[in-house]
Amino acid sequence: MSLTTQEIDYPQLAQQIKEWGLSLGFQQVAITDIDLAQTGEQLNQWLEKGYQGDMQWMSEHGEKRYHPEQLLPGTQRVISVRMDYLPDDSNMIAVLKDENKAYISRYALGRDYHKLIRSRLKTLAKEIEQAVPGSLIQRPFVDSAPVMEKPLAEKAGLGWIGKHTLAINSQAGSWFFLGEIYTSLPLPVDQSTEQDQCGDCKACLKVCPTDAFPAPYELDARRCISYLTIEHKGSIPEEFREPMGNRVFGCDDCQAICPWNKGATPTREKDFSPRHNLDNRELAELFLWTEAEFLKYTEGSPIRRIGYERWLRNLAVGLGNAPSSSAVIDALKAREDYPSDIVQEHIIWALGQHSMTETGKKKRKRKIVNPEASR
Fold it and tell me: Hey, which bits of 203-351 come out as E strands?
């Protein structure tokens, strides 16, 4: 005889859900309610300042972003999960310091996390459905809908939102992905155990190459290298090109400097390991990839979403910041006739940078992450 909803032991079910999640490879699973009223106010203030830049989707969907029950009617709880992604020995600082190398954000070196985590969440949702009688409203999310994943994770106790606006866990640092399952189950809510522990530290604010933090806990995406290299579709403003250095897809400086990341445990997920040696490749070599090679080597990777044109745009900036050499100059000139105004604009700028170097004009000194100098 099957159980009725009145006979469900919700505390026991919540514990089972956490155990199932851990067995699926998540490092942490927690449950929270759906009250995001304060977060909604903060979001609207941020949008009013225009800090979202071209990310118009941030202001779409009305209140659904901070009212989960509007996005999925019937939602009572959110199951929030954490999955660590930092690759083992990924040469992070060494690559940043080598101006001939291309720095790619650590999260993008392996398989696209959307696919991996979504698959695991679907499996977890099925486990729940099989254990619960009657109809059940559920939907998994992985950075794929108007879901405020960081505030939900903070409410669930997975961490706190640091001054760099990323979630930090005292045991795992900030090198992790988040995912959610919206559910109609009235599960017991976890009490947050991770209070804000940033203290007086301002290391992440100081190290930002483009000064993208107007204030602690506030990010102006329009100045952020991750936004400029991934979300922004047009020309990169000249004031940000030199500070970008060799960062061609994303930026990890605010995480690399964070004291809470000194003891971060490398991921056990093989799918997050670097593919095609993208953690240690020359700028000139990547710039000379044909579009077919770009599509081949970024298959199943989050890098592919920016497309070949923006890939060349970003690499041109990196080459403009690299030390002058025949390999760098030849690579830039090899793409001078590429049929894209944006790519040509950035190549012209890059070649101009090398002309300035040859005439004795010094380049701006770059900020380089030094984890030992945090705080």
Answer: 247-249
**Residue 143 is among the residues annotated as catalytic for this protein:** yes
Catalytic one of 54, 143, 200, 337: 143
Buried b (16+ CB within 10 A) or exposed e, 298-327: beebbbbebebbbbbbbbbbbbbbbeeeeb
- What are the tens digits of pLDDT across the range 142-162? 988 999 999 999 999 999 999
Predicted TM-score (pTM) of the model is 0.93
| Rg of the chain taking only CA atoms, in angstroms | 22
Tokens at 128, concatenated = 């729940």
Taking the domains of the chain in order of start, what are their residue ranges?
5-88+105-183, 203-266+273-370
* Secondary structure percentages of the chain, helix, strand, coil, to 5: 45, 10, 45
- Which residue in the block uniquely carries the two structure tokens 């709880």? 77
What confidence tier does 61 reach under pLDDT thresholds 50, 70, 90?
confident
CA atoms of 232 and 214, how far apart (whole Å): 20
